[in-house]
Amino acid sequence: MTGQRTLQLIGQTGIPVVNCTNACATGATAFREGWTSIKAGLFDTVLCVGVEKMAAGMIVKKKVGNEPLPAEGLIGSETMPAVFSMVGLEHVRRYGTTIEQFAKVSVKNHHHSTFNPKSMYQKETPLQEVLGAEMIAYPNTKLMCSVNVDGAAAAVLMSEKRARESGLLDRAVRVRASALASDAWTERNQVMQDVNTVSRQAAASAYEMAGLGSAGFATGRTA
Q: Would you say residue 219 has pLDDT above 50?
């Protein structure tokens, strides 16, 4: 009921509210649903809002009713650092990725935090500091794990007609296409999902929708 609670804070308006929950694609899904409703002609203006307030500490699977906790949850292999640990090691096996390369992502992200005054931590973390931090789930050290932080974002979507009437057309970013895809069912236990296949499937749909076709996809032009 996050959407309804948000409207209560800013003043109830009577407009429709839809809550989206789609794992790590929640924000993109909410944006796409707003875009789709405008394309369908249902609305001319849609506000897409994302907000989350998180508790400190490890995110673990919680017991629901009388459902017993799985052994994996008890020993910690269902925590996100452990999940990405398994995926990362599989990536190492397949492609020869080094632990240092993974750690450099953290170095880069912490460097970017120094430019954002609203970041929880604004501190450079050199490579050796990242590699030498407390081990959480090999090869993920503490400084390679995401920090639980509060955050919010919003996007206002408008039809071209409405944006023109509002005098915002010149400032607006045009959305030429939006595509969503998911993994096909397979009878095997995948440690690392084939993200290349699902990403290419979504990208191909987006480029086709945008009128760029396969040539646009090959040259890396954005849609």
A: no
